[in-house]
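Q: I'm building a small set of examples for a reading group on sequence design. Run inverse folding on the following structure and report the sequence directly after it, with nothing in between.
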């Protein structure tokens, strides 16, 4: 296998909208992203110990069965069944024992028993094991009460995974349990995709670095720390591209630099069509801009484009809308580009603890959290209320059509954990 096999780049028109499309429903936008994106990262092999959190680049086949041979599930005594009956049984003990890593050398004769410990390979002649707490033992014999079933307290060879079986499927984000399974079936190196590098760039004359000195009309950069942290929590490699003022030449230079640093870029601000919306203007100059006006609240404008082969997600400048667009659109797109495939968030139908009347036309997401078995929403829907993001533990998703919610009605709740954050 090549140590650095890289998929082809995305096409320049991958974000283009069909003719005549203006307002894009959420589901249609997601479908278009899913159909047009593909993995953009190279893959290689890494030692098993370094593979946690990485995306598996190829199916992994078991090189060894688990268990590799039949073994005992308990500490006890093993024997053949031919000399055992339903009543009280007393069998002589053979010399020696079977322990994990120290197998018994020989065959256990029919009518005799052997001391066997948990995890020990079952020696030839043993067809069942009786738990030691169910036995009476002296120096030469063991006594127990029947009946005893065949293979009781034994793990069969390969009962978990058989050599040659598919152990782990391509596209899986490897968990600690996956590493345990891979090791158990004889795998020492894992074929994984490189981590997707997610660049984050803030724009705007009004933006000041966190902790700096803000003058009149200036605000601290809330989006960049939030989006960089989101990328890291999702398992990607965050790349801080800093902040650029409303200067088209400076923005062009920063995007040129980003091509060498990142596989995809999130920008915040400058994604609409105003005089100072330089992100969308530059992407339009490059000939690869799609201004997706999505039927979504909050967060309608989403500029998608390619900068000399680099995918750019132009997010709204409002932090609430920026977070929402990242979770709903960028997060599944990143999974596809990272080799993990498209992953829809898992939602749950739960009882509402709030009232809401919604007009038709746009899908709405409310900042929400679960308390006492019901979901409550933030006291204000104002998209400038960043405190609501900190308060929330998930989102309530309301459908595109009109709906009236009263306490006790069932609504769809998306915990932030279902987005991997």
């Amino acid at each position: 296998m090549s140590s650095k096999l890289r998929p082809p780049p995305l096409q320049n028109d991958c974000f283009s909208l069909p003719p005549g499309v203006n307002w894009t429903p959420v589901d249609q936008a997601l479908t278009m992203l899913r159909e047009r994106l593909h993995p953009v990262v190279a893959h290689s092999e890494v030692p098993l110990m370094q593979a946690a959190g990485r995306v598996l680049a190829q199916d992994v086949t078991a090189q060894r069965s688990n268990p590799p041979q039949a073994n005992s599930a308990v500490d006890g005594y093993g024997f053949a069944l031919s000399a055992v009956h339903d009543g009280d049984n007393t069998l002589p003990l053979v010399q020696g024992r079977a322990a994990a890593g120290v197998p018994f050398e020989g065959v256990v004769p029919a009518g005799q028993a052997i001391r066997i410990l948990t995890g020990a390979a079952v020696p030839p002649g043993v067809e069942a094991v009786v738990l030691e707490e169910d036995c009476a033992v002296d120096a030469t014999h063991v006594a127990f009460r029947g009946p005893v079933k065949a293979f009781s307290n034994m793990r069969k060879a390969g009962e978990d995974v058989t050599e040659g079986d598919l152990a782990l499927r391509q596209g899986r984000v490897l968990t600690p349990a996956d590493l345990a399974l891979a090791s158990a079936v004889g795998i020492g190196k894992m074929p994984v995709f490189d981590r997707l590098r997610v660049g984050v760039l803030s724009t705007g004359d009004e933006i000041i670095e966190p902790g700096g000195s803000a003058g009149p009309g200036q605000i601290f950069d809330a989006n960049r720390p939030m989006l960089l942290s989101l990328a890291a929590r999702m398992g990607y490699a965050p790349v801080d591209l800093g902040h650029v003022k409303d200067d088209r030449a400076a923005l062009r230079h920063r995007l040129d630099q980003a091509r060498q640093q990142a596989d995809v870029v999130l920008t915040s601000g400058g994604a609409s069509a105003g005089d100072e919306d330089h992100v969308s203007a530059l992407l339009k100059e490059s000939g690869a801009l799609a201004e997706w006006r999505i039927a979504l609240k909050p967060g309608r404008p989403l500029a998608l484009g390619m900068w000399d082969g680099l995918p750019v997600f132009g997010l709204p400048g409002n932090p609430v809308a920026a977070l929402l667009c990242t979770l709903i659109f960028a997060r599944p797109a990143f999974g596809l580009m990272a080799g993990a495939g498209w992953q829809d968030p898992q939602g749950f139908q739960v009882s509402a603890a709030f009232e809401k009347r919604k007009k038709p036309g746009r899908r709405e997401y409310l900042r929400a959290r679960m308390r006492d078995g019901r979901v409550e929403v933030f006291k204000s829907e104002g998209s400038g209320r960043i405190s609501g993001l900190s308060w929330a533990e998930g989102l309530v998703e309301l459908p595109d059509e009109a709906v009236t919610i009263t306490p006790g009605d069932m609504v769809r709740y998306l915990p932030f954990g279902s987005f991997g954050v």
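The chain has four domains: 23-42+195-337, 47-51+57-66+159-193, 71-155, 348-419.
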